Amino acid sequence: MTDTTTKIRPPRNQWWDVWDQFKTHRGALVGLTIFVAILGLILIGPLVWHMDPTYVDFRARNKGFSLAHPLGTDQLGRDLLARMMAGGKVSISVGLTAMSLSIFLGAAIGVLAGYFKRLDGHLMRLTDLFLALPLLPLLLLMVTLFRDPLSKGFGPEGGIFLLIVTAIGATSWMQTARIVRGEVLALKEREFVLAARSIGTPAHRLVLRHILPNVMSPIMVSATLGIASAIITESALSFLGLGFPPDFPTWGRLLFDAVDQIQLYPMRVILPGIAISLTVLSVNYIGDGLRDALDPRIRGR
Amino acid sequence: MFQYTMRRLLIAIPTLLIISLVIFLLLEAAPGDPLGEVPLTVPPEVKAKMRTALGLDASWYIRYFLWLKQMFWIEPMHLWDTLFGTHMADDMQRVISFQSRQPVMDIIAQRMPQTLIVVGSAYVIGVLIAVPIGILSAYRQYSWFDNLGTFISMIGFSVPTFFTGVVLIVIFAVKLQWFPMVYDTTLQVTDWASFTKQLKQMVMPVTVLSLFNAAQISRFMRSSMLDNLGQDYVRTARAKGLTERVVVLIHVLRNSLIPVVTVIALGVPSIFGGAIITEQVFKVNGLGQQLILAIHANDLPMVMTLTFIFAVLIVLFNLIADLLYGILDPRIRYD
């Protein structure tokens, strides 16, 4: 009886519990470290390494590893370290933006379909239709067909960025929508929703205050995995020659540019490839750890 | 069951019609001009005639219905003609590629074998690798084998296929020179020497694709085995004195394969999509490469037909997966 007081700990934010559980997943911790390291290299690197990624130096073409160019130079004498950092910035920002778009669409459609019965049938029919679309061919099609008008409208870089992000986001929200709908359908029957409704909470506040916070965990997990798949899709598009323009490096584009000279300079293909794979691998591990950490049935065991 | 199949087939028709309309409208909204490659010296009135010859001056819905008619009425009749030697569709207009002026279906038929050989064998090998790995990983959960398998499959679906393909090319084609870098589709298999040559050029693309497939399927196999291993009927089987072999390989495996089979069926269309990239890496001139060529050349009928075929594959295999589930699992009845 007297011991009970010592067991009560001061109240703390539930995210600390999540973090405690996350820390026990070794793969996820390693993944997080690597991802933060890559982010640091990309964001802080250009401040230290002042080389311009688009500066052409014909006297320094096709150089190997050296002090002046730690990762060598390409066929136009552009510094590869600077290009890798610039490319990473684009690749990861495409991944993050496309993921945000797809999560926004998926969560919105999922919540609407789960909460409002009238919309459910139509929205789920739409989701099934999207799932039946051949996505990669359609992405290729969208990117080739709309690149010119959009680059005229928003400049070559902004236009393509907008196009690729919208295309990836618009074709990858379906899984999130399905998961969120399922969760919302179950949540809607719970007592706290009934209680909230009984005191006259309007629908929009009910969704934003009571439903949405409770579906945060599946949304966060699919957001993490969404970054990985968006990065892969962007680099696949670039690899097929349908991504960003040549003077605007991304990891996929660097890989694509180097494939022609693979026999002479294999390192130029390997380096961006490793960067893509490492990023995607670390993000996937983070997602794996998050899934475990956000599951209250596993947490605290 | 029969009723359910019929209902699903009937639902598939409007789905496919809507998808074909979406693809068509997307192509229509695009600013690309199929005559963009024609030199500027060609006078405008000739260009207008070329436009009429390609059927581009009609409004979009007429061309859409024309495509529907060609795709679903004339092409099947042609197939009938070539199969049975009749002459019903001889003077009817087939779907013609803008680029090569050949019927689209003929080009697809020419390129289909390459894609099917590479993609098909990769998928079969991937499944054959994945199932034993999944069984063993689940049976010895958290052993070194399981941990290694988890790590490799994580790598398997994190590393994009174009990178694994390129790495294989660097190691085995450039450094070691064991396998050719480019897939030679003109190769005819006539004797033993050409057969080994064919095998050699297939090794790398098939490895890349099957590793990617095996990574995903082995995970499904593992979790499905784990679900079943904890069930009561397994304890009963062991209590009866059945050998471990019979318990795992007959009782548990059969039940665990049910969801895996449907996952395998669902994965078939997506590997055709994935093959687009692999074909580009190894220069296999299959359907995926044709799609990319057609997109670059603004070859509308070809793009339309190929994308539509991909959509048909997806809808078809979704249906097959659902039906398989109903056939294999007696707990599920569609009524």
TrEMBL record, chain A:
It is found in: Cell membrane. CDD domains: TM_PBP2. One of its GO terms (biological process) is transmembrane transport. Pfam families: BPD_transp_1, OppC_N. GO terms for cellular component: plasma membrane. The chain crosses the membrane at residues 29-49, 90-116, 128-146, 158-180, 219-244, 264-287. Keywords: Cell membrane, Membrane, Transmembrane, Transmembrane helix, Transport. Its main location: membrane. Residues 88-287 form the ABC transmembrane type-1 domain. InterPro entries: BP-dependent_transpt_permease, MetI-like, MetI-like_sf, OppC_N. It is a multi-pass membrane protein. PROSITE patterns: ABC_TM1 (PS50928). It comes from the Bacteria. Belongs to the binding-protein-dependent transport system permease family. This is Peptide/nickel transport system permease protein.
UniProtKB/TrEMBL annotation, chain B:
The chain crosses the membrane at residues 48-68, 115-139, 151-174, 257-277, 308-328. Keywords: Cell membrane, Membrane, Transmembrane, Transmembrane helix, Transport. Gene3D superfamilies: MetI-like. It is found in: Cell membrane. It is a multi-pass membrane protein. It comes from the Bacteria. Residues 112-321 form the ABC transmembrane type-1 domain. Pfam families: BPD_transp_1, BPD_transp_1_N. GO terms for cellular component: plasma membrane. The keyword NAD does not apply. InterPro entries: BPD_transp_1_N, MetI-like, MetI-like_sf. The keyword Transmembrane helix applies. GO terms for biological process: transmembrane transport. Belongs to the binding-protein-dependent transport system permease family. This is Peptide/nickel transport system permease protein. It comes from Rhodobacter viridis.
